[in-house]
Design a protein that fits this description.
This protein is α+β, with helices and mostly antiparallel strands. It has 28 helices and 56 strands.
Length: 1187
């Protein structure tokens, strides 16, 4: 984190400031000037780095060749390095070679390194390194200490300039510059300059070499030698000790020790100052500007003036007397900087600009690594590269603000204390690195015509088995995900890519450890419960669960939710809810458009009406039966006075916009509740009438000349119901998103929904069909005055994954990142598109995120804190993100009141989910002394009845009644609509304001239930008596044991095993082989069931439980799975994409693992095994496609 002016304002009184020691008084104008410590670390709102062809968001360099030098006879402490071109031309690229000089002690070795020309698809090739010479700087190696070396005499690297310390017999040390002919076998010294004498413990000398000058400094001495005039000049100033030095062809830049006064603590502080001298005269031409003292660092240790052309709004042009452009420095962090940045900060990198004789700091970036050297290039626009102890290199963007792009170890790191020096060759955009362990590496851009590399030092590229990754600080993002986010999501959000990836890095840094701790706590609690069961359950269960922290004390005050800005579909209205895999654009669009559904289509094609339509077009007899069904619904929902809808001869509006109707017997009639009619459009022969009942709209479509309209006296062609009010776009259980490619599709589709432009094209009936989001509908209001607009789409929620999930689409700390954190930021960023009024989802400015698989209030509170941080990062108002709490884990059910309490300002949704909840129930009691009952009996057990009732009561107790959704689970048989129509009425009768349905058709039919039942009235009749609640909570904790299972007939046990095994295989094979996370899977009786990971969890946990308790054997399970694989193969034989298992293969093995590893899988979750298998299949498919 960079320090900012705002941060200082929070810590300091308004009267405090920082002043230089040379200026103890200030004018009023001066006092308004920001102090250096705040200025140099202040952050511009425009953090965009310089744009260049070679650098985009990082530094695309790669190792293209390596060599290991022989250091047998050389001190392995590398202190000097230079690389020069062996000719002066850059035109004949393939002919270019380089000369490398490495020095240590009193020895310099010179090597020739030809430019590699061959390509490789494996490891970086070895450099063809040719030793040229070994130079001895002096005759007595023990008295010589080499400080630095540089080639001198470019464009031909023929001379080496050495800065050495020579120890005399009296222990005094003199500093010398020696110019050696690197081609001479006798180590011929061409020129020697004596600079100064000092003590043996004096500071090491500094030297910088340009084409025409050698500049050296030691202590407070600074001298310049002009090659053409062969003269030595002293600097015209007397600073304290020089700490850093650099130069270009016109100027020398000097950092020296200084002090500065700070009003923060009313004390002097050691720091550095910087001056610029003209090389010809050694006169000072620029200084640190007033109030720009470098109080953030103790001492400048590195100074760099880029020699490449600087691309920054035309700056960088300098005259012979006026230096200009950028200047970089680095040094150890001061105590003042650590006060605000923490003790982890070791150093800081500073970016400065030189204008009109003044050096001004533009940005300072703290870093946890000490900086030993600064480098710039090898491109015109950088990057800036710092190298620290242990060969840790960081690249930095150099726009208006310094920003760290990448941090990486650039040597092999096999030996401790390895140091690395870098040398740039901007002519060919190459970089050399030489480490003190002898490793020489050549780095180049990928598009530079050199070899394709495997090892990378790039913030752009890191190659792994799963593809290329882009580095952003401590995270690496797969290039596919990066492209999806930057191209499909961020445009229109107001968030730049640089900002977004910085936010993700911070989010992972702030919450990953807590996420891991919560998962560890789950394991600890389960281990304690396992031990309690093994020990015979001697302690009372509820006392035990409270003692270990599984059960928490309910809130001391009554919980009342205070969620604000909730759309009426989530609060005031009751109606169906769809859940669809958002990776499938067609399904997502179908769900989004399911706000309105044709009752005729729902009844015509399904078993709601007896019989089936004849093939070959419209079946008139079927149509009459559907009309009868539709008229019956209208009579129930919108009754007429003294008539039935089927008796109408006409119904339309009069000249005043009022509804008028008459029967075939010419009897006038109308609605028993006239206010139910609210609008119309069209005309009497072809138009629509709009009604409302229980808050839901009904559209009667009149079209007398249509096939259906001709079959009835009033010309009714269809009844369109307002069906699904909301839809959960699922990133979790119904998708098979295992890598960056899958996640990119998930996120892009969600962004398309939020932007309002998602569309997909597919084949239907041999024709190409393009599906888009429905538009809104306009009606003339009843009475004829004004326009009524109704939305054409549902309100969409997005379900993120649980906290136990990880993804390789983003890497953090070298491993897979927690996927839930990635989901939170990406889906919220996509939600900005709607909040910017681009998509039309929420009309109240809210974003709805459903969080699954949460265990207890601690995890709910964690999710809320994550949302707090995401809102802060994205600039959203507090509590913009609303949370849906899935009540599908035992610890959440047992503490639901507390879960709602910690989310009371965000919660808009709770629901029950039988399958996941049963899976967790079985896993929790896995090590009990009795097995669980058969699945059919579990559904009737007391705990699940208590679970369903308690969810509604706890929600109503917290004030969620018609202020937030209280939901029920999925109807799993999408073809059995008659049964659904008969049974799912129980959900609104139980007080639930929504319930899940598997299809738009099911949503249309389920909408009838909300016309039959006034949910608001039902909720008012439900008792929230604390005594009832306590009884239900006690029943909730009674596991579904059945000690009699062991005495069941073998045939019944086998039938249960067959059923579970067939269901597991039928789902797993499509998940693993085809990447289908939710589909209609035929059960053992060939009844199609909607399956997702929740159904898989319960089936695999059930077999694992019976296996552990000896109800079934391992051999029996394996035989059953093998036999059932043939059944599943036969059920899918008509699918051209299906590959038969035949009792073997990756998918079959995954099914085996789910069962045999089920007892030890954390909480019985299936994702880890499924993901591993799916990745293996995709890897093999990718391999085959490449072949």
């Amino acid at each position: 984190m960079e320090l900012s002016t705002e941060l200082f304002r929070r810590h300091l009184p308004s009267t405090m400031g920082i002043a230089a020691s040379s200026s103890s008084t200030q004018s009023a104008a001066d006092s308004r000037t920001p102090s250096h410590l705040s200025c140099c670390i202040r952050r511009s709102k425009d953090d965009t780095p310089m744009v260049g062809a070679s650098v985009t968001g990082g530094w695309p360099l790669h190792v293209v060749a390596t060599h290991k030098l022989d250091w047998d006879r050389v001190d392995p402490t590398l202190v000097a390095l230079d690389v020069g071109r062996s000719d002066g031309s850059s035109s004949a690229r393939s002919a270019v070679s380089y000369v490398l000089a490495c020095g240590s002690g009193s020895t310099i070795r010179v090597y020739r390194l030809p430019r590699p020309t061959t390509s490789s698809c494996g490891e970086a090739p070895s450099l063809d390194v040719e030793p040229v010479n070994e130079l001895m700087i002096g005759t007595n190696s023990s008295s010589i200490q080499l400080h630095s070396i540089s080639f001198f005499g470019q464009p031909h690297a023929s001379y080496i300039c050495c800065y050495v310390g020579v120890e005399g017999t009296d222990r005094s040390v003199s500093s010398h510059i020696r110019i050696l002919d690197c081609t001479s076998p006798e180590s011929t010294t061409v020129k020697e300059l004596m600079l100064t004498e000092t003590t043996a413990d004096g500071p090491a000398g500094l030297m910088v070499v340009t084409r025409s000058h050698i500049i050296a400094a030691e202590g407070s001495e600074l001298k310049s030698w002009n090659k053409s005039r062969d003269c030595l000049l002293d600097g015209c100033f007397t600073p304290a000790s020089v700490s850093a030095l650099t130069a270009d062809e016109e100027f020398v830049y000097v950092a020296y020790d200084d002090t500065a006064y700070s009003k923060i603590d009313d004390a002097e502080h050691p720091t550095s100052s910087i001056i610029v001298l003209h090389l010809g005269s050694m006169e000072v031409v620029a200084r640190i500007a007033p109030h720009e003292e470098l109080l953030g660092i103790i001492r400048v240790t590195c100074l760099l003036k880029p020699s490449c052309r600087w691309r920054d709004s035309g700056r960088g042009r300098s005259s012979s007397r006026a230096p200009a452009g950028p200047l970089f420095a680095a040094g150890d962090a001061s105590e003042l900087l650590r006060v605000f940045e923490g003790d982890a900060v070791k150093a800081a990198v500073i970016q400065m600009s030189i204008e009109d004789g003044e050096i001004k700091t533009t940005s300072m970036a703290p870093t946890a690594d000490r900086v030993l050297s600064l480098n710039y290039g090898p491109f015109d626009n950088g990057p800036l590269i710092s190298v620290g102890a242990g060969s840790v290199a960081c690249s930095w963007s150099c726009g208006r603000t310094l920003r760290k792009l990448h941090r990486r170890l650039i040597s092999d790191g096999s030996a401790g204390g390895v140091q690395t020096r870098l040398k740039m060759d901007p002519a060919d955009h190459l970089m050399w690195s030489v480490s003190s362990d002898g490793l020489v590496q050549l780095w180049a851009s990928e598009g530079g015509g050199l070899v394709v590399v495997v090892r990378s030092f790039s913030p752009d590229i890191m190659l792994t088995e799963t593809g290329k990754y882009v580095d952003f600080g401590d995270i690496q993002v797969h290039e596919i995900l990066k492209d999806a986010v930057e191209k499909n999501i961020l445009p229109g959000t107001g968030v730049s890519p640089q900002e977004f990836w910085s936010y993700l890095e911070k989010l992972l840094a702030e919450f990953s450890d807590e996420n891991a701790a919560l998962l560890a706590h789950r394991d600890e609690l389960q281990a304690a419960i396992d031990e309690w069961y093994r020990d015979g359950c001697k302690e009372d269960q509820e006392k035990f669960l409270k003692r270990i922290g599984y059960l928490v004390e309910p809130p001391s005050t009554k919980t009342t939710i205070s969620t604000r800005n909730v759309d009426p579909e989530m609060s005031l209205l009751a109606g169906p809810q769809l859940v669809v895999p958002v990776d499938n654009a067609r399904y997502a669009l179908n769900a989004a458009n399911a706000r309105w559904g044709s009752l005729f289509d729902a009844a015509y094609g399904f078993d709601v009406v007896p019989g089936r339509p004849r093939p070959g077009g419209y079946d008139p007899s079927r149509g009459l039966a559907v009309l009868e069904f539709a008229f019956k619904q209208l009579d129930s929902i919108l009754p007429l006075v003294g008539a039935k809808w089927s008796e109408l001869a006409s119904i339309w509006v009069d000249s005043r916009g009022q509804l008028v109707a008459s029967t075939t017997k010419r009897k006038s009639t109308g609605l028993k509740s006239p206010s139910a009619f609210i609008g119309y459009r069209g005309n009497a022969s072809k138009g629509d009438l709009l009604f409302v009942h229980n808050g839901l709209h009904i559209l009667t479509k009149i079209h007398r000349n249509s096939p259906v309209g001709k079959q009835n006296s009033m010309g009714l062609a269809d009844v369109v119901l307002e069906a699904a009010l909301t839809a959960i776009m699922d990133c979790e259980d119904s998708v098979a998103a295992v890598d960056a490619e899958d996640k990119a599709k998930v996120y892009s589709n969600w962004a398309g929904l939020m932007r309002g432009n998602l569309e997909t094209t597919f084949k239907k009936g041999g024709k190409s069909v393009t599906r888009r989001l429905n538009s809104d509908m306009n009606f003339r209001k009843a009475g004829g005055e004004g326009i009524l607009t109704l939305t054409g789409r549902v309100v969409a929620l997005v379900r993120n994954v649980g906290i136990h999930m990880k993804t390789d689409a983003v890497l953090y700390r070298g491993g897979e990142a927690f996927e839930g954190l990635v989901d939170a930021l990406v889906t919220a960023a996509a939600g900005l598109l709607d909040l910017r009024q681009l998509g039309g989802n929420s009309r109240t400015g809210s974003l709805y995120i459903v969080k699954p698989k949460m265990h207890g209030p601690d995890e709910v509170a964690y999710a809320c804190r994550v949302f707090d941080r995401v809102e802060e990062m994205l600039g959203l108002g507090p509590k913009t993100i609303k949370i849906g709490v899935m009540d599908e884990e035992r610890r959440t059910s047992a503490n639901l009141q507390s879960c709602i309490h910690v989310a009371r300002e965000r919660v808009v949704f709770i629901n029950t989910g039988f399958l996941d909840r049963t899976g967790d129930e079985i896993h929790t009691c896995m090590h009990s002394q009795s097995p669980v009952a058969p699945k059919g009996a579990i559904k009737k057990a007391g705990w699940i009845q208590a679970y369903e009732k308690l969810n509604v009561i706890e929600g109503l107790s917290a004030g969620m009644g018609m202020r937030a959704q209280i939901g029920k689970g999925m109807w799993a048989e999408p073809d059995s609509m008659k049964a659904m129509l008969e049974q799912k009425l129980g959900h609104p009768l139980a007080g639930a304001s929504t319930a899940w349905v598997p299809s738009p058709t099911a949503a249309t039919l389920h909408a009838l239930h909300y016309h039959m039942v006034d949910v608001s009235a039902i909720q008012k009749t439900i008792s929230t008596d604390p005594t009832v609640v306590e009884t239900l909570r006690h029943e909730l904790l009674q596991p579904p044991f059945d000690g009699s299972v062991g005495s069941l007939p073998k045939s019944e046990v086998q039938r249960e095993l067959d059923n579970n095994s067939q269901g597991i295989l039928g789902y797993v094979v499509r998940w693993v082989d085809l990447g289908v996370g939710c589909s209609k899977v035929p059960d053992i009786n060939n009844v199609g069931l909607m399956e997702d990971r929740a159904t898989l969890r319960i089936s695999s946990q059930h077999i694992a439980n019976w296996l552990l308790h000896g109800i079934v054997t391992e051999a029996q399970v394996k035989e059953t799975l093998t036999r059932m694989s043939a059944v599943v193969d036969n059920q899918n034989k008509g699918d051209p994409q299906y590959t038969a298992m035949k009792g073997t293969g990756t998918a079959f093995q995954a099914a085996m693992d789910l069962v045999f590893e089920g007892a030890k899988s954390p909480n019985g979750y299936t994702e880890e095994i499924l993901t591993r298998a799916r990745r293996a299949v995709k890897a093999e498919q990718n391999k085959q496609s490449r072949l």
